[in-house]
């Protein structure tokens, strides 16, 4: 009895002190509407017993009828949902709101650009930005064209009138292109089964990691390590790391066989071998800055940067391209418009860097696909200082959630036909009437995606090559597609398309 009383008193004192130290947070939270404040558990009842697919449907229904902004509690954690573009801009453009919540550590990429703490991220991002300069992007174009041409030839074996899942092929394609361009390692020499095993394993691993986020009872490591989910993650993580280790080994072999500058000058005619300076790709820049201990990149951090680049450039691009081929098949009239534009701009041969700016219809179609089938459903930030978002003060210690999925279908932004597929939403005059933060598929502000421009470049080139050669069709309708919440949003169906040679 005495022990129980002691435990009760200790718990009460701890709780009172806990509340006292967070007084300002509770003060500001009271000013934000939120209908789901249950004692201790907050809003966790909304997530219990729901699959990722059910969760998206449920949250979308709620968010369209709830106030904005809105607060919710995930146990002791204050969540503030912000979906008005002007408020989103205040959050994402604030230098005091570039930190990501601790849940991003679940993905085990806390030393790469994806999940690094704010101070480390700022230093590394500044050093690595040049690896996606216009000069670097232009240098990728020949490789991207060669890989896209090879992929298009591979698709010839699929012209049979039968449906097939194009995502599996594209996941392998984007893995090879991201490694060949930004990481200086051509993985096309690897067996197809090895590449497909990497992509499928990574997708499932990060999907599982994401599910842990909304299962707050699994947040404590001491609890999570006792679960079957953790044991599965350990196996998948070990397999996941093998590919980046392979790339590091390939790079080391390349550097060991590369002649030194002195050897090169000795064996070369200086008048015939004048090398023009070229932009350093991501891996070269990473190798360079890792040599300086002041930059804080240890061996594990070096590998995590590569893991981040591989998965970030692989699964996101594969999903966006797969979704776009699916929507091209759904809307044949728009497909023909896109095809005619491509034939007017670049009817055959490689697509040049300059050609890409002329493909306005293709870009509109791609953006509309990413609006209704976003790659990322939501992102989160945690203020390091109080941040003013319009008339709301966001307290230190809260988690700010920005739901792209809801923003992209908000009728107050996109009109009464927000759920209807219409690339005209991205006509210049319509874009000018909308807030610039109404559509931010790669996030925005200082902590946006470092490879955003690379993503647009690589996707446009691949789509040009495929649409020029094939007419795409599908039996799937947009209304039948449901999205599943994950690090990269999933569909409830495979990307089943048919191809017909043009």
TrEMBL record:
UniProt cofactor(s): heme
Main location: endoplasmic reticulum
Membrane topology: Peripheral membrane protein
Pfam families documented for this protein: p450 (PF00067)
Keywords from the named record: Endoplasmic reticulum, Heme, Iron, Membrane, Metal-binding, Microsome, Monooxygenase, Oxidoreductase
PROSITE patterns: CYTOCHROME_P450 (PS00086)
Matches recorded under InterPro entries: Cyt_P450, Cyt_P450_CS, Cyt_P450_E_grp-I, Cyt_P450_sf, Cytochrome_P450_Monoox
Compartment(s) of residence: Endoplasmic reticulum membrane; Microsome membrane
Residues that, per the record, bind heme: 449
GO cellular component, one term: endoplasmic reticulum membrane
UniProt record similarity statement: Belongs to the cytochrome P450 family.
Protein name: Cytochrome P450
The species this protein was found in: Anopheles coluzzii (African malaria mosquito)
Lineage of source species: Eukaryota, Metazoa, Ecdysozoa, Arthropoda, Hexapoda
